[in-house]
Amino acid sequence: MPKVTQIQLVRVHYVPRVLEPGLLYVSKEFGAAVHLCACGCGAKVSTPLGPTEWELRETDRGPSLRPSVGNWQLPCQSHYWIEAGKILWFGTWSPEQIQAGRRAEVAKRQEYYEKRERQREGFFLRLWRWFVGLFR
Fold first, then answer.
1. What are the structural domain ranges in the chain?
2. Residues 87-131: pLDDT tens digits?
3. Quick one: which of 37, 49, 53, 99 is 20 to 30 A from 106 by CA?
4. Measured between alpha carbons, how far is 15 from 34 in angstroms, rounded to an integer?
5. What is the pLDDT of residue 120?
6. CB burial class (10 A; 0-12, 13-18, 19+) of residue 77?
């Protein structure tokens, strides 16, 4: 299969069993965007949507998905951005870059959930922890 250069958004409840090249299937209910790898290898690529995962933006020209799609677990190891309905190709990362990217993803998730936990704690608990911290 040839490389895909453009991609269109298709809203679905359930992702179909058979995917078509050049389509980004998005299920808002399940928080997922799924497409066939843009390199043409035929692999199914699933990108979970959410504050610690991928972000989907819809534009007049087509969908944008951030961050980039790095298919490091696939034999093709393709790496591309989906931006305003176009596939923008980037080079393959070294093993060191892949590990650094994965560490950054873990840190981003950890920071997000720690921040949420702090926000839920309430004013008096935060004040108490601050006060106790003064004497450590």
1. 1-92, 93-136
2. 999 888 888 988 988 898 888 889 888 887 777 777 777 788 888
3. 37
4. 7
5. 75
6. middle
Listed in sequence order, the residues at least 6 apart from 4 whose beta carbon sits closer than 8 Å to its beta carbon are: 21, 22, 36, 38, 39, 40, 87
d(CA 126, CA 119): 9
Specify whether the CB–CB gap between 65 and 54 falls below 8 A: yes
Amino acid occupying residue 21: P
Q: What is the 3-state secondary structure (H, E, C) of 45-108?
A: EEEEECCCCEEEEEECCEEEEEEEEECCCCCCCCEEEEECCEEEECCCCCHHHHHHHHHHHHHH
Per-residue pLDDT of 18-47, as tens digits, reads 999 999 999 999 999 999 999 999 999 999
What residues contact residue 2 under an 8 Å CB cut-off, 6+ apart? 40
Asked if 34 and 62 count as a contact pair (C-beta separation under 8 A), the reply is no
Other CB atoms closer than 10 Å to residue 93's CB: what's the count?
16
